[in-house]
Specification:
The protein is an alpha/beta fold. The protein is about 60% helix and about 15% strand. Bound molecules: cytidine-5'-monophosphate and magnesium ion (MG).
Length: about 190
């Protein structure tokens, strides 16, 4: 199985592109943000635990997120691989993911980083907020906090996989279709 982390700050286009990769390559798409939102909507214990963090644009504690992720990975049996979208978001999450895969004699094949300027991210998220119904897209202060959290807590994940020679950078600015083509070129070399 191929395991790819689609990486980048909020608004980089991870979700949009991960869905296309899922369909093109028959991968399991795990969006930890989507799983949290599903749990919040259904008022599960997990959702109640995660909601206040998410509404403020902060990270849910690692132990909660890692446990949830491990559960999601069990659905990968009949797939060609997994595309991770929004996970790992901390160094501890990256190490936990490496350990989980290692136990199954698997590994991360690549972290693909979607590069987009901060001012474009803010514009995209404000635009998305008009229709997404997401509380964390509706307030510019929360949007800015999420981008800040990306730089303080998440960007180290890129370095973690760079040290393993697994970092691939893709320009995340342009047409959705053009970006998909750039990503496909990278993924075709991995599978
Ligand atoms: O990935 P996405 O932008 O959908 O995530 C939405 C929110 O979910 C994040 O801003 C964060 O509050 C929470 N989250 C998290 N840890 C993750 C993924 C998402 O805390 N690994
Ligand atoms: Mg997303």
């Amino acid at each position: 199985m191929t395991h790819i982390i689609l990486f980048g700050p909020p608004g980089a286009g991870k979700g949009t592109q991960a869905e296309r990769i899922r369909d093109n390559y028959n991968f399991l798409h795990i969006s930890t943000g989507d799983v949290f939102r599903y749990n919040i909507k259904n008022e599960t214990a997990l959702g109640k635990r995660a909601k206040s963090f998410i509404d403020r644009g902060e990270l849910v504690p690692d132990d909660v997120t890692i446990k949830m992720l491990a559960g999601e990975m069990r659905q990968a049996d009949d797939k060609n691989g997994i595309i991770f979208d929004g996970f790992p978001r901390t160094k501890a999450q990256a190490k936990a993911l490496d350990d989980l895969l290692n136990e199954q004699n698997e590994k991360i094949d690549a972290l693909i980083s979607l590069d987009v300027d901060d001012n474009i991210l803010i514009e995209r998220l404000k635009e998305r907020g008009k229709t997404s119904g997401r509380k964390d897209d509706a307030d510019e202060n929360v949007i800015r906090n999420r981008i800040q959290v990306y730089y303080t807590e998440t960007e180290v994940v890129k370095e973690h996989y760079n040290e393993q020679n697994k970092l691939q950078k893709v320009d995340g600015v342009g047409d959705i279709e053009a970006i998909t083509k750039r990503l496909n070129k990278v993924i075709d070399q991995l599978i």
